[in-house]
Amino acid sequence: MTEPRITVNGTEAPIAPAAPHTTVLDFLRERGLTGTKEGCAEGECGACSVLVARPGVERPTDWVAVNACLVPVAALDGQEVVTSEGLATAGAPGTAPALHPVQEEMAVRGGSQCGYCTPGFVCSMAAEYYRPDRCAHPAPSADAAGADGDGDAEHGPNGFDLHALSGNLCRCTGYRPIRDAAFAVGAPAEDDPLARRRDQAPPAPVATRYAQGDRSFVRPGTLAEALRLLRERPDAVVVAGSTDWGVEVNIRARRADCVVAVDRLPELRALRVESDAIEIGAALTLTEIERRLDGSVPLLAELFPQFASRLIRNGATLGGNLGTGSPIGDSPPVLLALEASVLLADADGEREVPLAEYFTGYRQSVRRPGELIRAVRIPLPLSPVTAFHKIAKRRFDDISSVAVAFALDLRDGVVHKARIGLGGVAATPVRALATEAALEGMPWTAQTVEAAAAVLRAEGTPMDDHRASAAYRSAMLGQSLRKLYARAAEPRTTGTRAPEAPATEARTTKAVSS
Fold first, then answer.
1. What's the confidence (pLDDT) of residue 505?
2. Which residue spans within 335-470 are E strands per DSSP?
3. Contact in structure between 82 and 35 (CB atoms under 8 Å)
4. SS3 call for 122
């Protein structure tokens, strides 16, 4: 293994002497790149946003925006990073750099006031600017989009998806001029170097072993190597996007003697569609899953926009969300409703555990020391009537007070099967078994729904905390079923369509063992 190095704005630099827990944010600022700011240190404000070259979906490489405050710089060994300073194009000697089109639009449309959040907005906006499948959306009528008629509620006429900015907060300018700047950017010029970079291969994953003192950061080259290491070091902290561990490092000053990164392991990054199931690699980011499935699993498609922010989804994984065991994670209720199972691998082989049997207590599970979540498996066919209801203080970029996921199969007006996953109402994510039983075999009518809603209100063991009271949580459970009924008078049929396998992925699954 060579000395860990990172390429920043086209210039390669050694990571040493940074400590293994040093974030990309601190590394950049220590090098004088102070456009990258710290606002919250937990991935909620986006002031630290930077661009990272990652394997693409439509093209070989995508420019992806991530929270630099959460990612250890050692995790970007061998990778390419662009900061707000690197977006500008160098001018002739003695002249100022030329602003990037995104920077230009932010300037001329008044998108910056104090300027603290602006570099982060610019980097998140640039990632969307370079998104290969960004396409023009026809401007809807004023009734559909509001009096201005500038695109639908979340897309501009230039195809800009405002979810790209859902993880960026501004405290003084106001969002209207920022939105105006986003909706004004055009297509990248043919000679744009960052646009051309998308057609080249992404940086290859690098096996990394970086140590300072008695602490180390390790990125194994293969799953077998990772499992052997975890057998030797059961105390090691396993990370993928570091969206959870990064908060622990920053806010609670936690340090690990050994951190093992599994985010680039090929065995954890496959997405396979088989005749009877979809298998999703535990290290695929939520953004990658969303784009690869392209709406073919409607319940997941409804989850993704409500899961934190685009900046977080660019790093967060299903494996990480399940591995933390949080009772308020957003993906477990959805995966419970989909009757998913987890594939757990260790140095001796692999086993499959239904997700309904995975959680054993608060942040506890059946996963043994030395085991990794290799993949999540969703059985097919999918139930046609689905919904995900997240009750939180904010529409996006917030933690659930209550989360409810439904997957129902209605046949001839009768509930043939009901699966309901709940979050935020018990020490673990749970299935609403009593409510499922109250629905199955019953006619799908208002009377059935009212009776089942009363049962659903009593599910779990909700508590009072700073997000919501127990009474409110119980009330929201019952109300969520009424909302489902109101919106599902005519059952959707899109859920019965099996997703097509990506052209580059096999349709068969190989068990992983060493």
1. 36
2. 341-346, 349-354, 359-361, 364-365, 372-379, 385-391, 402-411, 414-423, 430-431
3. no
4. helix
